[in-house]
Write a structure and sequence with these properties.
By secondary structure, the chain is α+β, with helices and mostly antiparallel strands. It has one domain. The protein has 3 helices and 4 strands. The protein has a 4-stranded antiparallel beta sheet. A hairpin with a 2-residue loop joins strand 3 and strand 4. The protein is rod-shaped. The model has no long low-confidence stretch (mean pLDDT 85).
Length: 138
């Protein structure tokens, strides 16, 4: 009579553990880029707020002066060259008596955003391409 009994120790086999690792890594490959894009999109609100604030300051300046202001002249009334949270730097170009363009360029952790810059002029958001439209959509 054979008295050997097979006893299996409780736990997981190496194959089962490797399967779990593979599943987790596949989920991470999908989730991390999606999360990162969501973070970039939420930080664009910082640029939108800064650009809209700059547009209000430009219109305020224009109501008293004969042309739109440069960033240096706006600094006298409290305009900043960076957004509130610091994710974007602001630049003003094309100033005249009838036009201006403000550009928000991502810096720091936001520099890897697919929206290289976001622009606004006297008529509102500048959306010259599908990429620019994506940058203004929330």
């Amino acid at each position: 009579m054979n008295t050997k009994t097979s006893t299996r120790s409780p736990g997981f086999s190496l194959v089962e553990l490797m399967l779990v690792v593979v599943i987790i890594s596949l989920l991470a490959m999908v989730a991390i880029p999606s999360y990162q894009e969501s973070v970039y999109r939420s930080r664009r609100a910082d640029a939108h707020a800064a650009l809209m604030g700059m547009q209000l300051l430009q219109e305020k300046w224009r109501s008293v002066h004969t042309s739109y202001a440069t960033l240096n002249s706006l600094a006298t009334i409290g305009a900043s060259s960076t957004s509130n949270d610091g994710y974007y730097t602001l630049a003003i170009s094309g100033n005249s008596s009838t036009a201006f363009t403000v550009t928000a360029t991502p810096t720091g952790v936001q520099a890897s955003d697919s929206c290289a810059s976001i622009q606004l002029n006297q008529n509102g958001p500048v959306q010259t391409s599908e990429d620019a439209k994506k940058c203004w959509n929330r």
